[in-house]
Amino acid sequence: MTPPINEIWVYLSASPLLGLTITLLAYQAAFWLYRRSGMNPLANPVLIAVTILVLFLTLTATSYETYFAGAQFVHFLLGPATVALAIPLYTQFRRVRSLLLPVLAGLVAGSLTAALSAIAVARLFGASLPTQLSLAPKSVTTPIAMGIAERIGGIPSLTAVLVIVTGILGAVGARYIFDAMQIRDPAIRGFAIGVAAHGIGTARAFQISEQAGAFAALAMGLNGALTALLLPLVLGWLG
Amino acid sequence: MIAALTQLLVMQLLGEVVAHWLALPVPGPVLGMLFLFVALVLRGGPDAELQATSGNLLQHLSLLFVPAGVGIMVHLHRVADEWLPLLLSLLISTAATLVVTALVMKLFMRAPATSGDTP
C-alpha cells in the first residue's frame, strides 16, 4: 500500500533534500530563461530564481528556516567561491597593475558615493534611522555588509536583503548606464559593477568576459575592506 | 576537483583564523582570496585542476546568492512599510555609484581604452 501524498510531503518538507533540490531546479530554470534571452541583463537569473522560490515557499506554507536547512549547502559555497576569485585576479594582474591609479581613485569615489547617497536619499524620503543605517553598506558583499550594519546600528538581516536587491539592480542596469555613458573598456565596466553591485555584479561580469570579471572581483574585495574601515569613521564625523 | 576544493577551503580557513585572531574588519573568505593570490604569485600560477574547479564555481556564482535572496520573505513586512524610500535609495544610489566610479576611473586613465566584451 502506498502512503498518501500528504504523508510523503510531510516527510520531504522536513528533510534538507527538498530545500537544496528546489534551489538547484529554480536556478536551472532561471538560467535557461537567461540563456534563451541571449543573456539579457533584465532576465537576471538570481531575480528569477528567488521569485520562483518565494512563490513556491509561500504557496506551500514552508518557512524560510526550513528551506534554508537545505539551501545552506549552496550558501556555504560562497566562501570557497570568494577565495577562487584570486585566480582571475592573478590572470589579469598585469592589466590591474598598469591601472593602479584609476582603480584606487575609482574605488574611493565609488565607495563613498555608494554609502552616502544611499543614506541621503533614504533620509530625504523619510526612512527611519535604522533603515538608513541598514542601507549604508548595501554595495558591499553580504558577510562584510552585515558586520558593518551591526557596528553602525543598522539591522544586519535587513542589510543582507538590501545587499541582494542592490546586486540585482546593478547587474540589471549597468549595461544601459555604461552604454549611455559610452564606456566600453571592460576594466572600467567590470570595476564599477564590482564596486556598486558586489558579487552579483561580479557574477554578471564573469558571464560576459574574464577581464571584466577579474576587475569586478577586485572591486568587490577592495570595496568591502575600504567600506568596513571608512564607514564607521565617516558616520562618526557626520554625527 | 577534490584537491582544488581542499586548497580553496584551506585558504578560507586560514583567512578566518587570521581575521579573528587580529580582529580585522575583513571577512575570512576575502582574506583567503588575498592569501591564494599571494600563493599564486609565488608559485607562478594555478595548476590545471585549480583553474578548472574555480572556473566551474565562478561560472555559476549567481546561484550561490539565491538562498540569501530568498531571505526577503522574512522581511516582506518591513520592506512593505518603507518601500518607497528603500526603492528610491537603492535605485538612485546604485546608479550614482556606477556612474561616479566609471567617470573617475576614466578621468584617471590616460591610455586609450581597449575594446572587448561588455558586461
What does this structure look like?
Chain A is mainly α and 239 residues long. Chain A is 83% helix and 0% strand. Chain A has 13 helices and no strands. In chain A, helix 10 (142-152) packs parallel to helix 13 and helix 12 (186-208) crosses helix 13. The radius of gyration of chain A is 20 Å and the shape is globular. Chain A starts with a helix and ends with a helix. The mean pLDDT of chain A is 91. With 119 residues, chain B is mainly alpha-helical. Chain B folds into 2 domains: 1-59; 68-119, no CATH class. In chain B, 71% of the residues lie in helices and 0% in strands. Chain B has helices spanning 2-21, 28-43, 48-59, 66-70, 76-81, 83-108. In chain B, 41% of the residues are buried. Chains A and B meet through helix 2, helix 3, helix 4, helix 5 and helix 6 of A and helix 1, helix 2, helix 3, helix 4 and helix 6 of B.
The amount of helix of chain B comes to: over 70%
Give the uncertain stretches of chain A in residue-range form: none
The assigned structural class of chain B equals: mainly alpha
- CA-CA gap between termini of chain B: 29 Å
> What is the string of helix and strand elements of chain A?
HHHHHHHHHHHHH
Gist of the model:
The complex is a heterodimer of chains A (239) and B (119). Chain A is an all-alpha fold.
Helix and strand topology:
The complex is a heterodimer of chains A (239) and B (119).
Chain A: H1 5-13, H2 16-36, H3 45-59, H4 64-76, H5 78-84, H6 86-91, H7 93-98, H8 100-124, H9 129-135, H10 142-152, H11 156-181, H12 186-208, H13 210-238
Chain B: H1 2-21, H2 28-43, H3 48-59, H4 66-70, H5 76-81, H6 83-108
Helix pairs in contact in B: 1-2, 1-3
